[in-house]
Amino acid sequence: MNxxxxxxxxxxxxxxxxxxxxxxxxxxxxxxxxxxIMLECLPDLRKxxxxxxxxxxxxxxxxxxxxxxxxxxxxxxxxxxxxRHYACALxxxxxxxxxxxxxxxLVLTSDVDTVxxxxxxxxAIEHKRHHLFIDRRNTGQVxxxxxxxxxDS
Length: 153
Known about the structure:
Layout: H1 3-12, H2 20-28, H3 35-41, H4 48-58, H5 66-76, H6 81-94, H7 100-107, H8 112-127
């Protein structure tokens, strides 16, 4: 099998596997090569845990990959607030203003957790400090290190 077939099979197996994290760890070994396939498969994943794993995996690439950003936009529109949480995190880490319209729309939703996540992502992007997604009280003492992203604190 080639990488594309292997990655596709791995991603689609998430919905039928009890331990999605184990599969996600295997997916990470493909690095950025997996992003286009993650984007393609994301709408076909039924379980929120599977979609969340895709969003989580894409975060570290969100500063340098347009595909990762597209994954984030899809995640912001997801029906699961847990998936939306990771999409907001991806948006915040990317620091990309392209996310602001989608995030501002989420602020108007009825889910309190999603509103809080969207506001934190907006704050991080507007202040160009991804740490603010985690440091919601702006203490300056909480830092978010995304392993493998190549971004220093």
